[in-house]
Amino acid sequence: MISVKDSLLDRRSVRRYEREAITDEQMDLIYEAIRNTPTSYNGQQFSVIDITDQELKEKLYDLTGQKQIKTCNHFLLFLADYHKISLIGEELGVDMPQFTQTVDGLIVGVVDATLAMMSAVTMAESLGLGTCPIGYARTAAPEAVSQLVGLPSKTFVVCGLAIGVPREHPDLKPKQQLPLVVHKNTYNNDDKAMLKELEDYNEVITKYNQTRSGDKTTNDWATHIIGYYREAMNYRMLRALQRRGFDVTR
Q1: Residue 95 pLDDT more than 90?
Q2: Is the dihedral of CA 219, 225, 226, 228 positive or negative?
Q3: I need a surface site. Which of 68, 82, 149, 182 has the fewest CB within 10 A?
Q4: Over 90: is that where the pLDDT of 97 sits?
């Protein structure tokens, strides 16, 4: 088993996998890591769907265009989930507040599901497996994906995670330097110094994209990411969340 230190500091998204299956023992460890995820209030406001059926993975690929969904061994969907607590609350006669209609309720579910995904990533990587988080599982076709996997009300997909035996070892992408990421006691409001560090990082990413193994581009970091934001403006996530029982009003 790879140390947590090595697996986290050497982590990279893997999009190409061998046909070799992940063992039941490996998946059990991943499941247990997910189950032991820290959550808000210990409310465990998340669930996971482990998809191994190839036909179902092909349908999800058709909806998202993400090839690694159909080639990975296990595709996990991480959900924000208030269905479970609502179910037992109703059985116990406990009045369930409209927490899913608050911003905090939405955030709690997203945070819990995201922490669970990181638990899975950490365990899978320590086992020598490759992983790739896939946000398009949430945004590409939210209603179609929800129907395909039979989601009840008060649940929605937060993110997907492809897991498999890696066929590639991509170059490690440069990340922002610590001063841009970790602030001490208060936010660093020295925008002049921050801008210089951001410009330096932008140049580092441009050189990385020009020289990395595999497909090369001339993309810089900032323009490319802002382009993603511009594309994401076309998503209609609010209406999708409302249909799932998350009609956020406060």
Answers
A1: yes
A2: positive
A3: 182
A4: yes
